[in-house]
């Protein structure tokens, strides 16, 4: 995938056209979803999008770079709280300037999401710098520890509602900004960013770190810098997912971001295949849908869920796709082999 | 001063429980290089086995009559729980960990997380999520020593922990099984070549670690009065941190780490804020991993290419 060195005006026009088409497409589907689906299904569709962001973002560090984080719920929490808090504080100023309506809401929401992503990224950087010096299991445990500390901090911060959670200043709770349109615009943005990193030169270096860190270092790969960068980006995407998640409901509680949430994210990328972006997308959707379908099974749900995890690990540890990507050429090759 | 001593005593008794659990983590890690996440659930099952065994032995009736639970029955409860947990530990290793032993290292780690979740949720199903009051296997007697309140429960915790640790020391240092365990932890393949039945040694390690966790579970129930199916999560994590703090794979290290974590937790709860008693463990973990990743008593192992 060699990108041209300089883009001509024509290339730019094509890009703008494609982007506009994609945004319009998402908007159109969003309208269809709003009309055609009952609220319950709409909620699952939104959850699918949020899960995709979580899975694709986590996959960058856990799958592509091979550095196992099991504390990403912490970054999701940072993003959720930051987005909710900023949104609530920003809203009066923006409505004063732009009046009320969808545009003002969109501006507030996206500005707040960017702050959420930024703060989650900063948290990721702060966690990543010391802990990425460690390897394997230790890294996993440190990220777990950080995730718990972040949650306990929110649990004890009075300004953010302590253990009862943060519901904004309005008694009705947080405004329901999260719509199909915004969720899937962010899905596209996050998937593109992660895809571009993965298939760039840095991406190949990340894969080299996964395969053999010592060898990568011997080949003059700046391993620590790359690992920290990947971790920061991954944390920021978790922050975006957190922000989208926050505005799906009236409030957020520290217990929404427990260790189990991190496990959910890991299950998503494991089902799809560690190191595969399309796999992460599939895993994210699979988890949102399956957990909903199993809701009738009540308490057996989580037992089956855990059992599924163990069985996948024993039977097919590489997940559905392994490190491969789902693409038309994959099917062509298969057809050719037959 | 007496308040400080009180915190120290409470901290040490909590720390003894952490130490008992940490031993299981450290022994398994020493041999398989695996964080046995399911260990915290083995601890939980141990506590519940004790709960049901005491119930079956008629502790409720005795309590109503005001009679104390006889000491020999308390020992029976302890033995049954330790046996059941040992069996569970061995089963987990056989069914879940052995099939993935030669897979890349993340696979066993995720498997362990899965087994932990599975047991936790099975626990919620079988034992119900409601907290249970732990039966007074040891009837509490308080006495005061220079302004410090000591209960016989705390003393029991110290005595049982000490006895089990001496037993473990004897087992690891003075028996053939222990010698095999030490050999396997140095190098599994080499141990196999020397004719050690590694499969059996690994099973033995799981059995011993799980039995100690069960003892920890019963002592925890006695100390904290209530138990619930999620009791293992946080306690297990703290015990794991204790193992890392002492130097993972190092048996005396787990004991030192456990006692230090228990002390730190009580002191923070007593002098800073009870809200941060759980956070301090993770702060300690992060500080130790950054400053001295091999732990207090651990040895640095050179990575070979």
General description of the model:
The complex is a heterodimer of chains A (338) and B (305). Chain A is mainly alpha-helical and 338 residues long. Chain A has a single domain (10-265), classed as ABC transporter involved in vitamin B12 uptake, BtuC, CATH 1.10.3470. Chain A contains 13 helices and no strands. Chain A has helices at residues 9-36, 39-64, 72-98, 102-131, 136-155, 180-198, 201-211, 213-218, 223-246, 259-272, 277-293, 300-315, 328-337. The two termini of chain A are 27 Å apart. In chain A, 46% of the residues are buried. With 305 residues, chain B is mainly alpha-helical. Chain B has one domain (2-291): ABC transporter involved in vitamin B12 uptake, BtuC, CATH 1.10.3470. Helices cover 73% and strands 4% of the residues of chain B. Chain B contains 12 helices and 4 strands. In chain B, the strands form 2 sheets. Chain B has a two-stranded antiparallel ribbon. In chain B, a hairpin with a 2-residue loop joins strand 2 and strand 3 (148-151). In chain B, helix 2 (39-56) runs parallel beside helix 5. The longest helix of chain B is centred in the first third of the chain and has 31 residues, at 2-32. Classes of the chains: A mainly alpha (338), B mainly alpha (305). Chain A binds chain B through residues 66, 68, 70, 130-131, 133-134, 136-138, 140-142, 144-146, 148-149, 152-153, 155-156, 214-215, 259-260, 263, 266, 270, 274, 299-300, 302-303, 305-307, 309-310, 313-314, 317, and chain B through 33, 35, 96, 99-100, 103-107, 109-111, 113-115, 117-118, 120-122, 124-125, 233, 237, 240-241, 244, 273, 275-276, 278-279, 281-283, 285-286, 289-290, 293, 303, 305.
């Amino acid at each position: 995938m060699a990108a041209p060195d300089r883009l001509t005006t024509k290339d730019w026009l094509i890009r703008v056209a494609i982007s506009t088409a994609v945004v319009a497409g998402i908007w159109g589907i969003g309208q269809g979803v709003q009309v055609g689906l009952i609220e319950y299904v709409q909620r699952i569709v939104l959850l699918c999008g949020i899960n995709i962001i979580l899975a694709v973002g986590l996959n960058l560090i856990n799958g592509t770079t091979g550095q196992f984080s099991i504390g990403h719920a912490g970054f999701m929490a940072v993003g959720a709280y930051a987005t909710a808090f900023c949104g609530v504080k920003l809203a009066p100023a923006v409505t004063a300037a732009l009046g009320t309506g969808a545009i003002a809401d969109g501006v507030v929401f996206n500005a707040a999401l960017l702050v959420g992503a930024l703060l989650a990224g900063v948290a990721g950087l702060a966690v990543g710098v010391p802990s990425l010096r460690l390897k394997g299991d230790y890294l996993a445990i440190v990220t777990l520890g950080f995730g718990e500390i972040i949650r306990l901090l929110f649990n004890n911060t009075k300004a953010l509602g302590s253990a009862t959670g943060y519901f904004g200043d309005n008694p009705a709770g947080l405004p329901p900004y999260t719509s199909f349109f915004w969720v899937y615009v962010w899905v596209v943005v996050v998937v593109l960013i992660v895809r571009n990193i993965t298939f760039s030169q840095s991406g190949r270096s990340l894969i080299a770190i996964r395969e053999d860190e010592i060898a990568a270092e011997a080949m003059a790969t700046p391993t620590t810098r790359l690992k920290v960068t990947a971790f920061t980006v991954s944390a920021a995407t978790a922050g975006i997912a957190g922000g989208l998640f926050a505005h799906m409901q009236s409030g957020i509680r520290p217990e929404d971001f427990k260790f189990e949430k991190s496990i959910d994210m890991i299950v998503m990328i494991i089902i799809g295949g560690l190191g595969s972006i399309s796999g992460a997308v599939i895993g994210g959707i699979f988890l949102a849908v399956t957990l909903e379908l199993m809701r009738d099974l009540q308490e057996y749900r989580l037992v089956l869920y855990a059992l599924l995890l163990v069985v996948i690990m024993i039977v097919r540890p590489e997940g559905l796709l392994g490190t491969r990507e789902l693409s038309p050429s994959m099917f062509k090759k298969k057809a050719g082999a037959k | 001063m007496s308040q400080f001593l009180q915190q120290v005593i409470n901290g040490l008794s909590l720390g003894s429980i952490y130490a008992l659990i940490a031993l299981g983590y450290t022994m398994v890690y020493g041999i398989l290089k695996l964080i046995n996440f399911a260990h915290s659930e083995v601890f939980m099952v141990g506590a519940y086995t004790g709960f049901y065994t005491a119930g079956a032995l008629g502790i409720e009736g005795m309590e109503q009559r005001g009679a104390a639970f006889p000491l020999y029955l308390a020992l029976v409860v302890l033995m049954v729980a330790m046996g059941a947990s040992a069996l569970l530990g061995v089963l987990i290793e056989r069914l879940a960990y052995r099939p993935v032993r030669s897979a890349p290292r993340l696979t066993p780690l995720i498997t362990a997380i899965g087994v932990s979740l599975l047991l936790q949720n099975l626990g919620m199903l079988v034992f119900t999520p409601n907290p249970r009051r732990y039966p007074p296997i040891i009837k509490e007697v308080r006495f005061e020593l220079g302004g410090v309140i000591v209960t016989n429960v705390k003393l029991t915790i110290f005595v049982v922990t000490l006895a089990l640790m001496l037993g473990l020391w004897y087992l690891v240092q003075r028996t053939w099984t222990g010698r095999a365990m030490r050999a396997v932890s140095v190098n599994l393949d080499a141990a196999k070549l020397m004719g050690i039945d590694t499969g059996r040694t690994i099973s033995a390690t799981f059995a011993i670690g799980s039995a100690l966790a069960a003892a920890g579970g019963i002592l925890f129930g006695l100390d904290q009065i209530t138990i619930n199916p999620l009791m293992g999560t946080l306690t297990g994590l703290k015990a794991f941190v204790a193992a890392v703090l002492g130097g993972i794979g190092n048996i005396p290290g787990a004991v030192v780490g456990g006692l230090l974590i228990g002390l730190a937790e009580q002191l923070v709860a007593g002098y800073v804020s009870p809200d941060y008693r759980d956070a301090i463990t993770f702060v300690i973990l992060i500080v130790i991993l950054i400053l001295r990743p091999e732990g207090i008593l651990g040895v640095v192992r050179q990575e070979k290419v």
